[in-house]
Amino acid sequence: MSSILSAEHITVEFGGLVAVNDVSFDIPEKGIVSLIGPNGAGKTTFFNILTGLYKPTSGHVMYDGQEITALVPHKIAAAGVARTFQNIRLFGSMTAEENVMVAMHSHLKASLATTILGLPSQRREEKAAHEEARSLLEFVGIGKTATEFARNLSYGDQRRLEVARALALRPKVLLLDEPTAGMNPQESAVFVDFVHRIRDEKGISILLIEHDMAVVMKVSERITVLDRGEKIAEGTPAEIKSNPRVIEAYLGKGVGAGH
Amino acid sequence: MAISILKRKNKKQKQSASARSWAISMTLIALGIWAFFTYLFDKTPDAVQSWFQVWLPPSTINESLVWVICALGLNIVVGYAGLLDLGFVAFWAFGGYAAGWFMSGFFNQVNIHFGSMSAKTIPGIHLSFWLVMIIAALIAGFFGIIIGAPTLRLKSDYLALVTLGFGEIIPQVFTNGENIGGFNLSNGTKGISPVDAIGIFGKRLGPFDLGWKFLIYFFLAACMVFVSLRIRGGRLGRAWLAIREDELAASMMGVPLMRTKLTAYAVGAFSGGIGGAVYATHVNGIFAERFNFSISIILLAMVVLGGMGNVWGVIIGALLMAWINATGLPAIGDTFNNTFHTSINFPSYNFLLFGGILVLMMLFKRDGLLPEARIKMISHENDDETSNTGGH
User: Fold this and answer.
1) Residue B35: phi, psi to the nearest 5?
2) Complex ipTM > 0.95
3) Which B positions 224-253 lie with beta carbon below 8 A of chain A?
4) Would an 8 Å CB–CB cutoff place B263 in contact with chain A?
5) Which of A8, A206, B140, B177 lies at a C-alpha separation of 20 to 30 Å from A128?
């Protein structure tokens, strides 16, 4: 399987502190992969490299056959790398629908002049955008909330809205940063199916950062483990479960197998 | 599902209906004011006439419309895009001087006439007011981009400081612009006066044609309202609000931060230029000392008082503050002094008042007198629910 997004030998230093050290990593096309590791392992830093928020000290990020290492975040997003945030970052005083429509910015063509004049082309485009936003909200299961302000939604709905907003970028890759944080086990189980639906129905490749091992093991096709900025293991869930280095990283030295 | 769509449709209709009812009632009030001052005013008893001269003179009404135009421009920058701009007076000055340059006898070394009603024999550049207004807006917009390009990379407080600086520098340039390498740019502190009368339907609007000027100013303010509402509802307006709410998330959703902020700044500057040109026709001249820091602050206070982001709130804030500034404070002061036989100079305390209003608004009514519907709903329904949006 060819990879849609790949990081090659990424190293990030913050003033002498090495946050990520020579990590290579692939997201296969239409794959679901996870990035796990103890707190401070460099997962979110790595995420921020992929989305252009940080620039790596050395290494390259390739997306769909092109190098995107030096691109600014909004160009990477517009090219089709969408993300959600660990601590939800919605536009609180905009409606759910508007939140989704913001992410269509790079697809819409209306200019200042056509908006002021209200030309037919602009009206058609707006109408189509409304409908697309509506269907995305339906897709993630919060169609009823279209006119609610994002800040007024329940926690679970806000998480779903973040996904709907990311999908509005029409991405090829979706990066989910701890999407089940704060969910109870039932909600997490529903979420696993939801991730599969996104991949199957939209054909999007998915990368998760996740702490909930039950979710990770159920949802992932491949797992990469980071510890202190280094890649210590990579493989299928079964391989990762029995990998002694992974167990050591999570539980410390001297603890026997049997996680 | 069907119910939700229905509900939404109703809401949308309600929103546009409320915008329409606002627009209709404002237009009716404006026409009423115009008809009253044009046709009825002279026939009213002297007591009524003098009451209006003290409490609501026509020139104050016109001036407050100029403030409305500028406040709506600043609302795009501060209210929509969330960029704190403390130097808006710079754009007002550019607009004013554009009017001074292109519709007066100031450049008397040339003799250019186009669409102006002034006599062809008078030297200087005399262009039609409508053309000058567009030139003024373009000049201000151009400098908005020049000033904005390097400064909009800064974050909130630093942006406020740098714009504050530009708001001081530009008027200083005009104040001292009497002799720039032998070229008289601005006539220094003497200012440029008079500027040409506005011509409309073959009529010259002299200093006392306040009724016609009122209609023109009202028309321009109405255009600003229309443009503000249209942009707000479209792609760009959504991007501005998103930047105001969360800059980083906006950029992660494909919104180009610099370009979008710069557009907000340029549109604001553009309106400031129009406001400046209109102001020049209102006072029939350009005087450097009027373009001071206080204008930026008063405009900001108008936007905050009215309700950041809400066009109708900003209009009410602007009308109210402009009236207090021009007429209310002196008139109240005179009444107070006459009643209690004191001699307090009330107008000199206007900044105490405006500063006090800003502080009180921030303490007790942060969303303004007439907040944008969305903000109001949230801050009143959801005061203690912040845990929802926090991380973990």
Assistant:
1) -65, -40
2) no
3) 226-227, 230-231, 233-239, 241-242, 245-246, 248-253
4) yes
5) A206
